[in-house]
Amino acid sequence: MKTACAIACLIAAPLVAQDFSANSEARSWNLYAEVPARFEATVVDPLCLLTGDCPDNCGDGKRQLALVRSADDAMILPLKNSQPAFSGAANELQPFCGELVEVDGLMIEDPDLNATNIYLVQKIRKSGDADWIKANRWTKDWAAAHPEAKGKGPWFRRDPRVKAEIAREGHLGLGLETDEAFIKEWFE
Amino acid sequence: MRSLPLMAIAALLAFSPTAQAAEEGKRITVKGEAIDTWCYFSGVMGGPDAVVGSAHHTCALWCSAGGIPVGLLAEDGQVYMVLKIENDDQSNGGDTQMSIASHVITADGMHYQRDGINYIVVSEVVADDDIQVLNHEDYGPVPSMAIREPKK
């Protein structure tokens, strides 16, 4: 009987919601559905995991990366790094491809939008390391990749691809004529 | 029942959620808008109706260029995280994903689901209907700083 109970517990364990907020030092972003979450996980290439298409080094920065949490084997998808700058999380995770890490940040759990297991990573460290690394390297990576766009103002005002697209289709994406008319009316 | 045979235990564990491999992919055709998933799921810039379409187009460009995952928001409200489009696996800020920001596309591909998240590997963009949600008159630019007031 004890064996049967132990098996039942093993099977049921991942289905029980766990609290990963203990010891989290994540800063609130005052988001409706945010939940602080600190956990250990392995950095993985989700395209590799799901399809078997597995280039070296998780795709060398080209791909989105995910976190497979040690406690329950759940694959968490980080959408955002810690910078308030329209920047994702893949660059922050890339140096840890395949490694066991600890992360701290905010989980977004919103059943109304079917949002679950998505994450904003604020800091990361290799499992066992004492020092945390802030998840804020994205803008430095962007600056290094775009020396020609050096200047004042945030990266997204200077990004060559964004500027070219807006120059072509406007801010609304509906063409320059529509854009011009809307801007004139909006700011009147 | 004093003990279970080892084979029975192994069989039970094999069908437990932890032991199962990722779900098998399933071929689907899905029509939806290519959205910026962070703004949509987090609500950081308002409700879901405000962070799609023409109102949010500039922000969708910023977020796509910034490496925030692009998702396909289907007509039934499901979001499919786009991991690859045809031969381009650059889901971290790639040109192909950026080129469809805010567009409604019809995609044929393989659907995978893991831990409550839908993923799609697009084998073919069957149709690209450009931007279909015209909500800039309702919401203005979202966020408002997406369009700067012209200097007078």
Using brief descriptors, characterize the structure shown.
heterodimer; A: 188 residues; alpha+beta; five-stranded mixed barrel; B: 152 residues; 5 helices; 5 strands
Q: Could you please describe the fold and organization of this structure?
A:
The complex is a heterodimer of chains A (188) and B (152). Chain A is of the alpha+beta class and 188 residues long. In chain A, strands 1-2-3-5-4 form a 5-stranded mixed barrel. Chain A has helices spanning 2-12, 46-51, 90-93, 138-145, 155-158, 160-169, 176-186; strands spanning 34-44, 66-69, 75-80, 100-110, 115-126, 133-134. In chain B, strands 1-2-3-5-4 form a 5-stranded mixed beta barrel. Chain B has one domain (4-13, 29-128). Chain B is built from 5 helices and 5 strands; from the N terminus they run αβααββαββα. Classes of the chains: A alpha+beta (188), B alpha+beta (152).
